[in-house]
Amino acid sequence: MKNKKYWIEKLKLLQHPEGGYYKETYRSEFKVNLKDLGEKTNAVRNLSTGIYFLLGQESFSAFHRIKSDELWHFYDGDPITIHMIDGNGKYTSQEVGRNIENGEVLQYLVPRNTWFASEVKSNRHYALVGCTVSFGFDFNDFEMADKSLIEEFPMHGSILERLIR
Predict the structure, then answer these.
(1) The pLDDT of residue 158 is above 70
(2) How high is the pLDDT of residue 123?
(3) Exposure letters 130-140 (e unless 16+ CB within 10 A, then b)
(4) How far apart are the first and last CA of the chain?
(5) Rounded average pLDDT over 113-124
(6) What's the domain count of the chain?
(7) CATH code (residue 132)
(8) What is the DSSP string of 133-155?
(9) CB contact set of 122 (below 8 Å; sequence gap of 6+)
(10) Cα 122 from Cα 103, distance rounded (Å)
(11) Does the bond joining 135 to the residue before it have cis omega, within 30 degrees of 0?
Protein backbone atom coordinates (compact mmCIF):
# COMPACT_ATOMS: atom_id res chain seq x y z
CA MET A 1 0.00 0.00 0.00
CA LYS A 2 1.30 3.45 -0.88
CA ASN A 3 1.73 5.73 2.09
CA LYS A 4 3.79 8.76 3.09
CA LYS A 5 6.90 6.69 3.82
CA TYR A 6 6.63 4.93 0.45
CA TRP A 7 6.62 8.21 -1.50
CA ILE A 8 9.41 9.77 0.57
CA GLU A 9 11.65 6.76 -0.12
CA LYS A 10 10.69 6.12 -3.78
CA LEU A 11 10.91 9.76 -4.83
CA LYS A 12 13.90 10.51 -2.57
CA LEU A 13 12.13 13.49 -1.00
CA LEU A 14 13.92 15.90 1.34
CA GLN A 15 12.49 18.03 4.16
CA HIS A 16 11.28 21.41 2.93
CA PRO A 17 11.89 24.60 4.99
CA GLU A 18 8.19 25.58 4.84
CA GLY A 19 7.06 22.10 6.00
CA GLY A 20 6.58 18.75 4.26
CA TYR A 21 8.96 17.07 1.84
CA TYR A 22 10.07 17.87 -1.71
CA LYS A 23 12.32 17.04 -4.62
CA GLU A 24 13.09 19.27 -7.56
CA THR A 25 12.22 17.42 -10.77
CA TYR A 26 12.74 20.13 -13.38
CA ARG A 27 14.72 23.33 -13.85
CA SER A 28 14.51 24.93 -17.28
CA GLU A 29 17.81 25.47 -19.02
CA PHE A 30 16.36 28.68 -20.43
CA LYS A 31 16.82 31.80 -18.33
CA VAL A 32 15.21 35.21 -18.22
CA ASN A 33 16.40 38.58 -16.92
CA LEU A 34 13.66 39.82 -14.59
CA LYS A 35 14.23 43.40 -15.76
CA ASP A 36 12.93 42.27 -19.17
CA LEU A 37 9.67 41.28 -17.40
CA GLY A 38 9.23 44.71 -15.84
CA GLU A 39 10.84 43.91 -12.48
CA LYS A 40 13.17 46.41 -10.79
CA THR A 41 16.09 44.01 -10.70
CA ASN A 42 18.60 42.54 -13.10
CA ALA A 43 18.30 39.14 -11.41
CA VAL A 44 18.33 36.17 -13.77
CA ARG A 45 15.98 33.24 -13.17
CA ASN A 46 15.26 29.94 -14.87
CA LEU A 47 12.13 30.16 -16.99
CA SER A 48 10.36 27.43 -14.98
CA THR A 49 10.93 24.84 -12.23
CA GLY A 50 9.00 21.85 -10.92
CA ILE A 51 8.93 19.82 -7.71
CA TYR A 52 7.19 16.92 -6.05
CA PHE A 53 5.75 18.07 -2.72
CA LEU A 54 4.38 15.85 0.03
CA LEU A 55 2.49 16.92 3.14
CA GLY A 56 1.52 14.64 5.99
CA GLN A 57 -1.24 15.12 8.53
CA GLU A 58 1.32 16.14 11.16
CA SER A 59 2.64 19.06 9.15
CA PHE A 60 1.59 21.96 6.97
CA SER A 61 3.15 24.29 4.48
CA ALA A 62 3.44 27.54 6.45
CA PHE A 63 2.32 30.90 5.07
CA HIS A 64 4.87 32.24 2.61
CA ARG A 65 4.96 34.02 -0.71
CA ILE A 66 7.10 33.95 -3.80
CA LYS A 67 7.53 36.36 -6.69
CA SER A 68 6.31 33.83 -9.27
CA ASP A 69 3.08 32.08 -10.19
CA GLU A 70 2.86 28.58 -8.70
CA LEU A 71 0.71 25.92 -10.34
CA TRP A 72 -0.24 23.01 -8.04
CA HIS A 73 -0.99 19.52 -9.44
CA PHE A 74 -2.68 16.74 -7.43
CA TYR A 75 -1.16 13.24 -7.67
CA ASP A 76 -2.06 10.95 -4.77
CA GLY A 77 -3.41 10.70 -1.23
CA ASP A 78 -5.85 13.04 0.47
CA PRO A 79 -6.91 16.45 -0.82
CA ILE A 80 -5.17 19.59 0.39
CA THR A 81 -6.51 23.02 1.16
CA ILE A 82 -4.53 26.00 -0.10
CA HIS A 83 -5.17 29.13 1.99
CA MET A 84 -4.41 32.46 0.30
CA ILE A 85 -4.33 36.15 1.24
CA ASP A 86 -3.83 38.60 -1.58
CA GLY A 87 -2.19 42.03 -1.38
CA ASN A 88 -5.53 43.66 -0.51
CA GLY A 89 -6.08 41.30 2.42
CA LYS A 90 -8.75 39.17 0.75
CA TYR A 91 -8.73 35.57 2.02
CA THR A 92 -9.67 32.67 -0.28
CA SER A 93 -9.09 28.95 -0.18
CA GLN A 94 -9.16 26.13 -2.71
CA GLU A 95 -9.23 22.38 -2.24
CA VAL A 96 -6.94 20.45 -4.56
CA GLY A 97 -7.82 16.78 -5.00
CA ARG A 98 -9.81 14.29 -7.07
CA ASN A 99 -13.37 14.96 -5.88
CA ILE A 100 -14.32 17.30 -8.70
CA GLU A 101 -18.05 17.01 -7.89
CA ASN A 102 -17.30 18.50 -4.45
CA GLY A 103 -15.40 21.53 -5.73
CA GLU A 104 -11.89 20.07 -5.64
CA VAL A 105 -9.63 20.70 -8.63
CA LEU A 106 -6.73 18.68 -10.02
CA GLN A 107 -4.68 21.82 -10.69
CA TYR A 108 -4.72 25.26 -9.13
CA LEU A 109 -2.72 28.43 -9.72
CA VAL A 110 -1.53 30.56 -6.79
CA PRO A 111 -0.75 34.00 -8.26
CA ARG A 112 2.63 35.59 -7.63
CA ASN A 113 3.10 37.67 -4.46
CA THR A 114 0.13 35.96 -2.75
CA TRP A 115 0.59 34.83 0.84
CA PHE A 116 -0.34 31.16 0.96
CA ALA A 117 -0.20 28.04 3.10
CA SER A 118 -1.45 24.50 2.57
CA GLU A 119 -2.49 21.55 4.67
CA VAL A 120 -3.93 18.08 4.23
CA LYS A 121 -7.69 18.58 4.22
CA SER A 122 -8.55 15.57 6.36
CA ASN A 123 -6.62 14.31 9.35
CA ARG A 124 -5.90 11.01 7.66
CA HIS A 125 -2.64 10.41 5.85
CA TYR A 126 -0.81 12.54 3.29
CA ALA A 127 -1.08 14.43 0.02
CA LEU A 128 1.37 14.11 -2.86
CA VAL A 129 1.26 17.06 -5.22
CA GLY A 130 3.51 18.78 -7.71
CA CYS A 131 4.28 22.47 -8.05
CA THR A 132 5.38 24.21 -11.23
CA VAL A 133 6.80 27.69 -10.70
CA SER A 134 7.20 30.26 -13.47
CA PHE A 135 9.52 32.19 -13.56
CA GLY A 136 11.54 29.47 -11.88
CA PHE A 137 11.74 29.14 -8.13
CA ASP A 138 14.70 30.75 -6.39
CA PHE A 139 15.08 31.03 -2.61
CA ASN A 140 15.96 34.72 -3.13
CA ASP A 141 12.30 35.21 -4.15
CA PHE A 142 10.92 33.29 -1.13
CA GLU A 143 9.54 35.06 1.96
CA MET A 144 8.37 33.12 5.01
CA ALA A 145 5.61 34.85 6.99
CA ASP A 146 6.10 35.73 10.63
CA LYS A 147 3.70 36.97 13.30
CA SER A 148 3.79 40.52 11.86
CA LEU A 149 1.46 39.26 9.12
CA ILE A 150 -1.23 38.92 11.81
CA GLU A 151 -0.85 42.62 12.58
CA GLU A 152 -1.17 43.43 8.87
CA PHE A 153 -4.26 41.21 8.43
CA PRO A 154 -5.89 40.91 11.89
CA MET A 155 -9.19 39.81 10.31
CA HIS A 156 -7.46 36.52 9.39
CA GLY A 157 -5.73 36.08 12.74
CA SER A 158 -7.05 32.59 13.52
CA ILE A 159 -5.87 30.99 10.27
CA LEU A 160 -2.56 32.89 10.37
CA GLU A 161 -1.90 31.88 14.01
CA ARG A 162 -2.44 28.25 13.06
CA LEU A 163 -0.34 28.24 9.87
CA ILE A 164 2.65 30.44 10.72
CA ARG A 165 5.73 28.86 12.31
Answers:
(1) yes
(2) 63
(3) bbbbbbbbbee
(4) 32
(5) 88
(6) 1
(7) 2.60.120.10
(8) EESPP-GGGEEE--THHHHH-GG
(9) 57, 78, 79
(10) 15
(11) yes
